[in-house]
Amino acid sequence: MDVTLLFRFRDLSCPSGETIKRHQAICDQKDFVWWGWWNKGHEKLPTETIQELGLHKELTDFFVYLFDSASKKFYQAELLKIKSNLGEKLKTDSLEHTPSYYVENSHQLWLKFKKIAEVEENEIIGLKSYEPMNDLFLPDSHFDMYDNKVVSSPEELAEQNRTIWKIRDKKETDKTNEIRLKFLTEVQPRHFDRSYRATSRNSILWLSDPHFTNDGFHEFALNDDNPNLLTLSKVIDGAYFKSDTHQIASLLISGDLTWKGLENEFKLASKFIDYIHSMNSMDKSWLSICPGNHDLSFYEGADDAIKNNDKAIKENYARTRQCYGDFYSKFFDINPNKSMASGRRFLLNDTIPVEIVLLNSVTLQQTKDSFQGHGFIGSEQLTEVENRMGLSTSKPRNVTRICVMHHHLLPVSLTQDAYEDAKYSTVLDAERLSRWLTTHKFDFLLHGHMHQNFNCTIERGVITHEVNPNEKKNKLHVLSLGSSGVCSSHTGEANGNWACRIAFGHDKIRFHYAKISPKDANLTGEYTLEFDYND
Predict the structure, then answer these.
(1) What are the residue boundaries of the Calcineurin-like phosphoesterase domain, all occurrences included (predicted)?
(2) CA 184, CA 197: separation in Å to the nearest integer?
(3) Closest Cα partner for 181 from 128, 123, 142?
(4) Do the bridges between strand 164-169 and strand 128-131 make them parallel or antiparallel, or are there none, so unpaired?
(5) Cβ-contact 427, 409 below 8 angstroms
(6) What is the pTM of this model?
(7) Which helix (H) or strand (E) holds 457?
(8) Which positions ≥6 away from 347 have C-beta within 8 Å?
């Protein structure tokens, strides 16, 4: 037997162990029994699979498997034929060949079994693999993560919210990892979440521009052996996670994890994130990050000859992109995509859906003192994110939608230094981004970059030079966060290092800004910004 089906069941309409006993008793007395398929709400009749396996015909020596998700036992049943009618619910063909608890029920699919016998789990576990079965589900599902993977354990099967699997004999090329939904919310590495990750915690801890480096531009100690200064990890852990009721579900970092995009600097950033996650039992796949201009292609060439050397600039960009890619893949078990964009979906406080889009605003190579710090998103990246996150459909009114990037949309500093032949702006395609954010009804835009706290609200339509009396204007709150780790001489007007806890309460969204210091794990200079949920 190569390709067949595995059906899930549980003793819900009768005492434990009685489902198999009652079907087998009828088989013994009447030569065959009808078994009804109890489908879940997101499942439909898998007509393509039925046709592919030829199940509408009279069958000979065709066996399917049954899996009791409560006892974790497996059974093999000889299938004689099926009964279905394009998804219409049907009564059994014969009451005398059907257990009595089916009498009042109708089902989309009936299976005619000749005999049922228990089999050892090792007849399936480790020997069978999942085949794609997309025709079983009404909407898109996440079950493609199991395709062409060995069935690893009864627990792996039981944790899947489905009632039929198409399985086959395993191949040498099949994946062998075990997927346990109980312990992981996103079990297949993805750049963009397809479903919401649920938690009773209500907060996200926002950090920005920590600038880990050995070159003296990081304000905090890099190791625990410094008698005068604490590491950033010890400060953040002590200030935000020391209580069992800290309520923080994940970290959000809006770029510039490093100073020069060097491998050893990304290792320092990894060490920090690893510490926070391990000390507080946080799932690394919940991490939300985007790159900054110091993480990608920050070029240190000083003289004009080198600044104009395209080869050197491109080599530097390739090197830093590889370093960032290695850092990214460590936490998400997948290399970054071309655009380096990603997306998260959280269900915070058990009931509050939050979508976070993380854009790469560093798509232009940087040259120190000549073309430095400019941001650019690009229409290709926006289209990819729109498609991957499903933003083209109307936004549900209860969803809070947040965009995160490194560069700023609006000026946040009083002034900037001027360089000859340099052009100054925010992200170079700021208006395109603004229209995109308005079109998709984003509520917040969060960024870092200038090491300065900032807060502004923009209320606008998509096209601002045209008047549309029927268009409902979108309200976008633009917030920036000062650096969470750079040396104090490089901080902005807000002065010092900052962190922000974003709390999603049942009444409002609150951004709790606070200063942090390498001297202790206390928060100072605290203030809170409150925002209503969208209408």
Answers:
(1) 204-452
(2) 9
(3) 142
(4) antiparallel
(5) yes
(6) 0.65
(7) strand 454-460
(8) 196, 197, 198, 199, 353, 354
- State how far the Cα of 343 lies from the Cα of 15, in Å rounded to an integer: 45
Edge-first strand listing for the sheet containing 248-253: 288-289, 248-253, 203-207, 497-504, 509-517, 520-531
Q: Give the pLDDT confidence of 77-102 residue by residue, as tens digits.
A: 999 999 998 878 999 989 999 999 88
Which strands sit side by side in the sheet containing 197-198, from one edge to the other? 197-198, 342-348, 352-358, 400-404, 444-447, 474-480, 454-460
Joined tokens for residue 36 = 């009804």
Q: Which of 310, 308, 445 is nearest to 375 (CA)?
A: 445
Q: Which single residue is written with the structure tokens 């750049």? A: 191
Mean pLDDT confidence for 184-208? 82
Q: How many other C-beta atoms are found inside a 10 Å radius of the C-beta of residue 117?
A: 11
CA 247 to chain centre: 19
| 8 Å CB contact between 314 and 381 | no
Structure tokens, 301: 């060439």
Between CA 391 and CA 119 the distance in angstroms is 47
- Which element (helix H / strand E) includes 279? helix 263-279
Q: Quickly state the pLDDT bin for 299 (edges 50, 70, 90).
A: very low
CA angle 459, 462, 466 (to 5 degrees): 100
Residue 235: which of 515, 496, 492 has the closest Cα?
Answer: 515
- CB-side exposure of 283: number of CA atoms within 13 Å? 15
Tell the burial category of 331 from Cβ atoms under 10 Å away from its Cβ (0-12, 13-18, 19+): middle
Residue 366 has pLDDT above 60, yes or no: no
Task: Tell me the C-alpha to C-alpha distance, in Å, between residue 497 and each of 183, 419, 492, 524.
Answer: 35, 27, 9, 10
> In the predicted model, what is the mean pLDDT of residues 194-203?
89
Closest by CA position to 209, among listed 523, 449, 516, 492: 449
C-alpha to C-alpha distances, 188 to 131, 191, 315, 333, nearest whole angstrom: 16, 10, 32, 9
* Residue range 362-388: mean pLDDT, rounded: 73
Q: Where are any strands of DSSP class E within 69-227?
A: 73-83, 110-119, 128-131, 164-169, 197-198, 203-207
Query: How many of the other CB atoms lie within 10 Å of CB of 308?
Result: 12
How many Å separate Cα 307 from the centre of its chain? 39
User: Contact, 136 vs 47, CB < 8 A?
Assistant: no
